[in-house]
């Protein structure tokens, strides 16, 4: 396939400050990695202990673990502080009778309390479920119902989006904020924390015991609860070392929210397993606030996403010049394809190679990367890490030669591989339908040097600003609007956001297409589901293309949108 040729030049030599190729290879001996963790001596483990308390016992008590700032707060916490705060929260949970394996959701904006809660929940052996603060009632309800969560930590502003009467398993709502009075099922975070002891017993776990559930979107049905176990820490620790290149004096900043897997695997687990100082910035995206964050803390390692880099590029080179970003030594990206243009720009304005990394909620950790000790090719996701075997395979599981496009697949298992889809074993098995492979749902090809090049999703999942949105979930919300008869949702290519959500809608009798109605429908999804899932573009149609079995053919909608051939229409209704 000649036409798949892209720019394939390595940009700049490998940075000598980074871990060498030899070191990267030699440290992938997972047995060696395991010696870091408690189970090596006791057979038992606990992620929160390995993240925080282990460092306290190893002489890092006074090291800053967390630098936090937003427009109102500016704080810092040592490893000893985080140990105490998470102990307090663990005691709050124990008092409520919460036990190992039970699900606790965390639904709040990024503040230090989110991190205390998450770590404290892990200390009692609970499985945490982080949620974006942008989620509205129906998104919250689906996730809590499916996982039968027993508790949720939230803030007064978000409390109204938790439909308590419809959630029979939910016993406790822990609210961080002064205005809240304790009452039936409502616990005041601050007053309970103040009374709780700073000492707590760790719930020691097996390595296959639960850690976290991240809900993520597929093309059909409700979001899937991707379940990860303690054992994932091997991958988090190892990739933190050889991909993030974390060393003891690094100031690390991952811009992702913990509602997204990047914000936990690489916003919490990888940096703290490696004992790094972790920067968390609350509040919304703003180019000058972001650059100021790098300058203020002297950030050395920075992990963000293509959509953010594109917005920073849009803010202009002059904005960059107003700040001192010379502390940066390593920059990485994840979530969607990283445009070669952005890589070239990063080289020019930051004097840094932006390292693309590929992985998914389901994989728990990075698998294919431009890791620091190799040359990068702009536009390529990089190569499998040592210890990871990736391939392009056809639908029967045969490996394809270079430049042939096919399913991007990973040899099973690896340490952070998901262990189930909550309540949905058949969905889980779909990923492993080809013997010995995890089939990612992405299509890609490999070049003759073994670099992987992303081509697209095989299903209809939309990637908008790096977030996965399932078309079905949006369509389901759309048809709840009184004017909407039917809806089909696709991702439409967009220079800034990667894709935007476009909805094709047929109206019910008695409704007229209008600009106002579009606005109203947009608002309806934004307020009922979440802002990032709301269709920025709406097109009214008399009829939507459907199969004879009644399924809306998103593929045809997409072809219309992009003026492409519609392909095989033999199953279309009329
Ligand atoms: C896409 C994010 C191109 C891909 C950690 C994948 C990427 C989905 C890249 C997972 C990349 C992620 N280049 N596409 N470097 N990284 N993707 O679960 O389609 O939110 O399947 O996890 O994002 O998204 P998720």
UniProtKB/TrEMBL annotation:
Domain AMP-dependent synthetase/ligase: 60-421
Family, similarity comment: Belongs to the ATP-dependent AMP-binding enzyme family.
GO cellular component assignments: cytosol
Keyword Acetylation in record: yes
GO MF terms, alphabetically ordered: acetate-CoA ligase activity; ATP binding
Ligase keyword on record: yes
Highest taxon in the source lineage: Bacteria
Domain AMP-binding enzyme C-terminal: 473-551
Organism the protein comes from: Paenibacillus abyssi
Top class in the EC scheme: ligase
PROSITE patterns: AMP_BINDING
Signal peptide extent: none
EC number: 6.2.1.1
Name by which UniProt lists this protein: acetate--CoA ligase
A GO biological process held by the record: acetyl-CoA biosynthetic process
Keywords associated with the record: Acetylation, ATP-binding, Ligase, Nucleotide-binding
């Amino acid at each position: 396939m000649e036409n798949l040729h892209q720019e394939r030049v390595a940009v700049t030599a490998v940075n000598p400050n980074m871990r060498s190729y030899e070191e990267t290879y030699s440290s992938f001996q997972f047995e060696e990695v395991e010696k870091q963790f408690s189970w090596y001596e006791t057979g038992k483990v606990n992620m929160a202990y390995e993240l925080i308390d282990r460092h306290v016992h190893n002489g890092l008590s006074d090291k800053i673990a967390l630098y936090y700032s937003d427009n109102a707060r500016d704080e810092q916490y040592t490893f000893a502080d985080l140990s105490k705060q998470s102990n307090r929260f663990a005691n709050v949970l124990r008092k409520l009778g919460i036990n190992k394996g039970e699900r606790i959701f965390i639904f709040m904006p990024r503040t230090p309390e989110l991190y205390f809660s998450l770590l404290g929940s892990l200390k009692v052996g609970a499985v945490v479920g982080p949620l974006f603060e942008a989620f509205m009632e129906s998104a919250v309800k689906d996730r809590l119902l499916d996982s039968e969560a027993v508790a949720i930590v939230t803030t007064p502003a978000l409390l109204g989006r938790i439909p308590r009467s419809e959630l029979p398993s939910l016993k406790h709502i822990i609210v961080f904020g002064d205005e809240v009075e304790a009452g039936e099922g409502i616990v005041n975070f601050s007053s309970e924390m103040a009374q709780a002891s700073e000492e707590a017993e760790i719930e020691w776990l097996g390595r296959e015991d639960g850690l976290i559930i991240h809900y993520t979107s597929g093309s059909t049905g409700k979001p899937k609860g991707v379940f990860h176990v303690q054992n994932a820490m091997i991958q988090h620790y190892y990739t933190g070392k050889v991909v993030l290149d974390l060393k003891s004096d690094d100031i690390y900043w991952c811009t992702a929210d913990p509602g997204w897997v990047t914000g936990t695997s690489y916003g919490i687990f990888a940096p703290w397993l490696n004992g790094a100082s972790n920067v968390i910035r609350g509040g919304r995206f703003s180019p000058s606030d972001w650059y100021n964050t790098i300058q203020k803390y002297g950030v050395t390692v920075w992990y963000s996403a293509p959509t953010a880099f594109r917005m920073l590029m849009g803010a202009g080179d002059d904005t960059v010049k107003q700040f001192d970003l010379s502390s940066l030594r390593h920059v990485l990206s994840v979530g969607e394809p990283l445009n070669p243009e952005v890589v070239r720009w990063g080289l020019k304005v930051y004097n840094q190679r932006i390292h693309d990394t590929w992985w998914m909620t389901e994989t728990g950790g990075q698998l294919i990367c431009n890791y620091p000790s190799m040359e990068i090719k702009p536009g390529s996701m990089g190569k499998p890490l040592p210890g990871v075997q990736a391939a392009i395979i056809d639908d029967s599981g045969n490996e394809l030669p270079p430049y042939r496009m096919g399913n991007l697949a990973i040899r099973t298992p690896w340490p952070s591989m998901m262990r189930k889809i909550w309540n949905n074993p058949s969905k889980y098995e779909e990923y492993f339908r080809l013997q010995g492979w995890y089939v990612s749902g992405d299509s890609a090809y490999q070049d003759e040097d073994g670099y992987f090049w992303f081509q697209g999703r095989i299903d209809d999942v939309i990637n908008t600003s790096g977030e996965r949105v399932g078309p079905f979930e949006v369509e389901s919300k759309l048809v709840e609007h009184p004017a909407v008869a039917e809806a089909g949702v696709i991702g439409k290519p967009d220079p800034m956001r990667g894709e935007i959500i476009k909805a094709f809608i047929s109206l019910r009798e008695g409704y007229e297409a209008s600009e106002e109605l579009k606005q109203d429908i947009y608002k309806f999804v934004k307020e009922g589901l979440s802002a990032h899932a709301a269709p920025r573009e709406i097109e009214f149609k008399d009829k939507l293309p459907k199969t004879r079995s009644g399924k809306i053919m998103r593929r045809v909608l997409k072809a219309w949108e992009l003026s492409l051939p519609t392909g095989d229409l033999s199953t279309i209704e009329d």
